[in-house]
Amino acid sequence: MTTVLGIPIQVLFGQLLLGLINGAFYAVLSLGLALIFGLLNIINFAHGALYMMGAFAAWLLLSHAGIGYWGALVLAPLLVAGIGIAVERTMLSRLYKLDHLYSLLLTFGLALIAEGVFRQLYGISGLPYEIPASLRGGWNLGFMFLPVYRGWVVMASLILCLGTWIAIEKTRLGALLRAATENPPLVQAFGVNVPRLVTATYGFGVAVAALAGVLAAPIYSVNPLMGSNLIITVFAVVVIGGMGSILGSIVTGFLLGLVEGLTKVFFPQGAATVVFVVMAIVLLVKPAGLFGRSN
Amino acid sequence: MAEPILEVAGLEGWYGDSHVLHGMTFAVQPGEVVTLLGRNGVGKTTTMRAITGLLAKRQGSIRVEGTETIDLPPHRIARLGLGYCPEERGIFAGLSVRENLELPPVVRPGGLSLAEVHALFPRLQERAGSQGTKLSGGEQQMLAIARILRTGARLLLLDEPTEGLAPVIVAHIGRIIRQLRERGFTILLVEQNFHFAATVADRHYVVEHGKVVDMVPNAALAANMEKVKAYLGV
Lengths: 295, 234
Hints:
- The structure holds 2 protein chains of 2 kinds.
- By secondary structure, chain A is mainly alpha-helical.
- Chain A has helices spanning 9-40, 47-65, 69-90, 100-122, 148-170, 172-182, 184-189, 194-220, 226-241, 246-266, 274-285; strands at 3-4, 7-8, 138-140, 145-147.
- In chain B, 32% of the residues lie in helices and 27% in strands.
- Chain B contains 9 helices and 10 strands.
- The chains are: A mainly alpha, B alpha/beta.
């Protein structure tokens, strides 16, 4: 059997794939967080709960309306984005002029409420969500077995991240968004309805989180705590990438997933903390994050 | 006389608890270049911010082509045909020169084409791919003016466009303002440099303590020089 540093190559690549899958979710979730932080200046602690709600929306659509995975992939983000937009309009928008702490507390409270409600209704043991028939099975790559669904999750996440990055960096709408992140009053004085742009951005960030939830449902099962288990790591990713940096979130998300995967192979007891160790080192060396701009 | 394109009456304005504007009243006719002259801190920039809607707390009346704007949000005011060039220029660091130039949406038909803008400001074409804030102060000022010309706005609010610039650049901006006037733009200009203002404006409103205290037609500026100098403390 081929080994690398005494580790069978199948084990190594298996863990790297797991790391890549986790990294895909880190990237997609931190992308939404970075987008929301950049424009709204809000640390959206509800992001994990919104991801969880995306997974639940997929499960509910299947069990109550018979709408399968592909339908849920479109509908769940729309439904959860609708909830997010209502929250932004009725609550968050009142806090923009206050300190970050207020929005952090509000979104943290909302996350706790959402988790509590789903916990009360569906328990914490997790609800199964089957992989759609067209994405079952796997490929034997010789050095490892790649399940089709996991390959799909990585590809879909990459496409989503890349698409969002292109939209923000290369389009006029993206330029408006970047400008509104820098100087919202001036952009509004140019005739742009910035409050609407802010709402749409929050809605998009939420939709992306919910989409990640749908993608995650067949892998992790649907659980009220699935978001809170992930969100702290995702915040670390955002900090390492640079608060508000889209590219930073994407690259750091995937990289840290891989680092975590490798740590599981070579130093398993450090796997849970490696992301935070990296965060501490990055903050010491580059306080604005790897891709952040220091003010 | 035609209806004023901008009519400000009894305008009061506040920054937090600080009462800054105390009944500003003045009017600008279509096609005019008018300056608000005054010392630092008398409320000229605050007046501009009130007109654009960026000053959150304001009372009184601001009419743009007859439409009352005092209760409108900034984006709706801009869409009445206003172009704003702020004192700090407001060039976006995260955007290239071209992106900065193309950023403001078209608010009315009849704006300058990109080719016309480049003909007025050739440097902006040469540096299209540079980061906006990497331009020199003069180039940034030109970019700040250029980007509102594309939008179709007919009333331009220019806040201290010559501040901190070399004389050769000031002269260039003066030529641009005169060209814009010839093209029918209306310009409200905030200036401390009345020597510059005298080369471009039709009339000057003198501002003190948040209100207009005098109006001097440009033709009468020389005759009133001592009075204007006294107002400006120079």
